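> example.struct
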């Protein structure tokens, strides 16, 4: 019986599980497989990857804090996926180093709105 004709529950149970002995011997997909070409993404795909508002992305681009978009045609604007992924990785590293170097957070007693006493 071909695997596609099996019920979904049987197909899932036949997959190797990380806790099973011998899982390390199962061929895995590479974490970062280099693509033979540079991939670009459109606005919809960008928003799936980076959950920021359009205005925030535009302002960050203008300040040089986010990868710049470029035009493929008069009506098609794209971003380089590799640049966006590198930006995300930089943000992760900055966030992790800020957690180790910073205090517990901002002083909430100094807020203008809803200060905590």
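> example.seq
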């Amino acid at each position: 019986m071909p695997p596609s004709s099996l019920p979904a529950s049987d197909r899932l149970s036949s997959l190797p599980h990380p806790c099973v002995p011998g899982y390390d011997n199962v061929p895995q997909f590479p974490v970062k497989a280099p693509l033979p070409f540079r991939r670009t993404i459109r606005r919809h795909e960008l928003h799936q990857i980076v959950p920021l508002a359009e205005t925030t992305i535009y302002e960050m681009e203008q300040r040089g804090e986010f990868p710049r978009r470029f035009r493929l045609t008069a009506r098609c604007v794209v971003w380089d996926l590799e640049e966006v992924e590198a930006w995300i990785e930089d943000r992760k590293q900055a966030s992790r180093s800020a957690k180790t170097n910073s205090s517990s957070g901002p002083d909430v007693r100094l807020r203008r709105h809803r200060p905590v006493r």
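> remarks
Residues 66 and 115 are 32 Å apart (CA to CA).
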